[in-house]
Design goal:
The protein contains 2 helices and 3 strands, in the order βββαα. It has one domain (3-60): Single Sheet (Rubrerythrin, domain 2), CATH 2.20.28. With 68 residues, it is an alpha+beta fold. It has a 3-stranded antiparallel β-sheet, with no helix packed on it. The chain binds zinc ion.
């Protein structure tokens, strides 16, 4: 299951949520204030460090889907 980072637009709380494929489209509730106004952040995983990680990845798999 992918772990996503969310940020609450109401209180600014940032939290991580495991999202299964089944509820991938479901709303995520802020654990701090209960608001549904949350947005998913790019996972630090996927973002990585711009530069070396990304360029080395594109050399081994176009689109960078290998996760390196
Ligand atoms: Zn909140």
């Amino acid at each position: 299951m992918p772990l996503y980072e969310y940020e609450c637009e109401k209180c600014g709380e940032q939290f991580e949520e495991l999202v299964s494929r089944r509820n991938g489209g479901a709303e995520v509730t802020c654990p701090a204030c209960g608001s549904h106004k949350t947005r998913r952040l790019q996972s630090t995983f996927a973002l990585g460090k711009p530069g070396k990680t990304a360029s080395s990845c594109t050399t081994c798999c176009p689109g960078g889907t290998c996760g390196l």
